[in-house]
Amino acid sequence: NAGVMQNPRHLVRRRGQEARLRCSPMKGHSHVYWYRQLPEEGLKFMVYLQKENIIDESGMPKERFSAEFPKEGPSILRIQQVVRGDSAAYFCASSPRTARDEKLFFGSGTQLSVL
Amino acid sequence: KNEVEQSPQNLTAQEGEFITINCSYSVGISALHWLQQHPGGGIVSLFMLSSGKKKHGRLIATINIQEKHSSLHITASHPRDSAVYICAVSPGGADGLTFGKGTHLIIQP
């Protein structure tokens, strides 16, 4: 049973480009969380999704950021018109139930660098 | 808003020492998680607690709901335990975790 798979591991974008980060949860996990870790800062919750539904996006910036978790395929975190401040490590975690009830399994993260 | 405070921020110890990392939070929660982040960046979930105590190998986690406090203990510490240990809480009624800033632990041989 493969773990949580994130790709790419490293992504370099120029200001104004789009970034797409992918997360394939562990088999049997229908709950996906995205977190961001800015340099020298702690992890911050961004969004919580279940299959085809956004449950809580209270941690996601209102503009330029969007997330989806389609019925088939990985969860995608999309950042449009990236700026230097978006440079961070983005982690995805999955779980068979909510974080209130179950341990989370984390991917290795995507390091986004905006030039 | 739930504030999560960890102490100490940095800890250097000798191999074999007993290690304690503390976590305090400000409002009621439904669960508390301890995570380990290695220098390469990968994050591993060590424990999820809602009450009492859990043990896994040389790691022990405890939580006191009334005092809003949790501790992570490492017995017979080893250099491979060197990592950042992060406390995170799941506020009641919400699903997004709130994280502490982490404790940087270095175990010297």
Describe the protein's architecture and organization.
The complex is a heterodimer of chains A (115) and B (109). Chain A contains no helices and eleven strands. Chain A is mostly beta strands and 115 residues long. Chain A is globular and about 40 Å long. By secondary structure, chain B is mainly β. Chain B has strands at 4-7, 10-14, 19-25, 29-37, 43-49, 52-56, 59-64, 69-74, 83-91, 98-99, 103-108. In chain B, strand 4 and strand 5 (43-49) form a beta hairpin. Classes of the chains: A mainly beta (115), B mainly beta (109). At the A-B interface, strand 5, strand 9 and strand 10 of A face strand 4, strand 5, strand 9 and strand 10 of B.
Short overview:
The complex is a heterodimer of chains A (115) and B (109). Chain A has 115 residues and is mostly beta strands.
Residues in helices of chain B, as a percent range: under 10%
> What does the main sheet of chain A amount to?
7 strands, mixed
Q: Using CB atoms under 8 Å apart, which protein chain pair has the greatest interface?
A: A-B, 27 and 23 residues
The beta-strand count of chain A equals: 11
Write the SSE topology:
The complex is a heterodimer of chains A (115) and B (109).
Chain A: E1 5-7, E2 10-13, E3 19-24, E4 31-37, E5 43-50, E6 53-56, E7 65-68, E8 75-79, E9 88-95, E10 105-106, E11 110-114
Parallel strand pairs in A: 2-11
Antiparallel strand pairs in A: 1-3, 3-8, 4-5, 4-9, 5-6, 7-8, 9-10, 9-11
Chain B: E1 4-7, E2 10-14, E3 19-25, E4 29-37, E5 43-49, E6 52-56, E7 59-64, E8 69-74, E9 83-91, E10 98-99, E11 103-108
Parallel strand pairs in B: 2-11
Antiparallel strand pairs in B: 1-3, 3-8, 4-5, 4-9, 6-7, 7-8, 9-10, 9-11
Question: Any descriptors?
Answer:
heterodimer, A: 115 residues, mainly beta, four-stranded antiparallel β-sheet, B: 109 residues, six-stranded mixed β-sheet, five-stranded antiparallel β-sheet, 61% strand, globular
